[in-house]
Design brief:
heterodimer; A: alpha+beta; Thrombin, subunit H; 2 domains; six-stranded antiparallel β-barrel; about 30% strand; B: mainly alpha; Arp2/3 complex 21 kDa subunit ARPC3; 6 helices; globular
Chain lengths: ~280, ~160
């Protein structure tokens, strides 16, 4: 009886059995139970070489297409890109240069609009290496009508939108097309100054870091922090009434009966690009 | 002899399906040549060979590429079994036979696949499912069924010509 049953329904049994086994397999593998993944690992281990081969061929096939295309274009593209990079880099340099200088250029333009002096524009072309912010060389000389002792200035902003000449230094040595300028931060370069508000006079006596020190002639002079300091023209070394800087500190020395002021110069001596010489 | 041919065909198809065919995809669709292979073999060899072969090819694909083992085997088993019934009922020379069966089987395959995935994850939208079932794959598979049918009709009919 059972044999007959099997013979009659063997195909259906076969189909249902296989379907059931596969459905169970789906159910088991979808849950990722441990025993099943071990079995899978085993099977995978057997079939991994095949998988590897197919993967290698896969990479090879897609690789051939791309590499052929790439090799044809690569050299040409490389050259083009190199040229492009060069061009962009040089452009970038130019633009950064302009951006970095834009502040200065604006100041210069404003100064030239309302200056009363006859100015010669000069470019800083070199600095003495050992004391690089005290002495520097500019690209104008005797051929441009400059003389030893001429005052060198730079455009500075006093208040917002008020631009004026700021004292840089004076010419101490001159050639046909170059001049050496000693800046006011040099200790030997004594500048006579006056306090704008009270007209008290004094002389610059030294410098430290980014500030310069001035010695007032009058011990009892009325000076407050924030006073503006100008050249007095005394001794005719420097032009009269050129802006030096702002008083940032006052040092009273009771025993020596001297009064010193610390001045923050209006010019940033570490960032000098274009200067003007007063003829 | 037949077993060797079938074995070689399964492996060659597997390699082609995973290497060459992905690079000729159209509309993001890769032909399911494993399915086409089962259809053609079932048409030539009947439901018994077709269904067993379906399980074999399906398992191979599952183990190598699928995260869940049994989906491909189950579907290909039924495809092989049902199409095997048609072995003697259709004209062998007519290329429309594999094309029609491929169209139907592709829809069947993707529908059952979607159903199984639905039961496993319950996280697919109906729109996406329908898009997957009635996709360009139907046309693509049909084209490949003609190619496969031609190849296997040459392989399987040669001895008969000899005997006649």
């Amino acid at each position: 009886m059972t044999m007959y049953f099997f013979r009659k329904y063997k195909e259906k049994i076969f189909v249902i059995a296989i379907a059931a086994i596969l459905i169970v397999t789906i159910g088991l593998t979808s849950k990722r139970s441990e025993s099943m993944s071990k079995f899978e690992n085993l099977l995978g281990g057997v079939l991994t070489p095949l998988n590897k081969i197919t993967n290698n061929i896969k990479h090879g096939v897609s690789g051939i297409f791309t590499s052929v295309k790439d090799t044809i274009n690569a050299k040409e593209e490389n050259e083009l890109l190199k040229k492009e990079i060069e061009k962009l880099e040089s452009e970038n340099r130019d633009l950064r240069n302009i951006i970095g200088k834009s502040d200065h250029l604006l100041k210069e333009e404003k100064l030239l609009e309302n200056t009363k002096y006859n100015l010669v524009k000069a470019e800083v072309i070199g600095r003495e290496p050992e004391n690089w912010f005290d002495v520097f060389t500019i690209d104008k000389g005797e051929n441009d009508g400059l003389e030893i002792g001429d005052t060198v200035i730079e455009a500075v902003e006093i208040d917002s939108n008020v631009y004026q000449e700021g004292l840089v230094g004076r010419i101490v040595d001159i050639g046909d097309s170059w001049s050496k300028v000693v800046s006011i931060t040099n200790e030997k370069n004594s500048v006579a100054f006056k306090i704008l508000r009270t007209q008290d006079g004094g002389i610059i006596s030294g410098s430290s870091d980014n500030t310069i020190e001035g010695l007032l002639f009058d011990y009892e002079a009325d000076v407050i922090i924030g006073d503006l300091v100008y050249t007095s023209g005394l001794g005719e070394v420097y032009q009269k009434d050129i802006f030096i800087g702002e008083v940032t500190d006052i040092v009273d020395n009771q025993e020596e009966l001297t009064k010193k002021i610390v001045i923050k110069p209006a010019v940033d001596f570490k960032k000098l690009y274009n200067v003007y010489v007063i003829k | 002899m037949n077993i060797l041919i079938l074995l070689a065909a399964a492996i060659i198809n597997l390699i082609l399906q995973s290497t060459v065919f992905p690079s000729i995809e159209i509309f993001g669709v890769v032909p399911n040549t494993a399915l086409v292979l089962i259809i053609v073999i079932s048409l030539f060899k009947g439901r018994f060979v077709g269904s067993i072969y379906g399980v074999f090819v399906g398992l191979l694909t599952d183990i190598l590429y699928s995260s869940v083992i049994g989906i491909n085997s189950l579907i290909l088993f039924f495809v092989g079994y049902f199409i095997g019934f048609a072995k003697d009922s259709f004209a062998r020379d007519n290329l429309l036979t594999p094309v029609i069966f491929t169209v139907l089987s592709t829809i069947f395959f993707n529908a059952i696949y979607a159903l199984v995935v639905y039961f496993l994850t319950a996280d697919i939208s109906l729109k996406l499912t329908l898009q997957n079932i009635f996709s360009f794959e139907i046309v693509y598979n049909a084209i490949f069924s003609i190619i496969y049918y031609k190849i296997f009709s040459k392989i399987f009919t040669r001895p008969k010509i000899k005997f006649n």
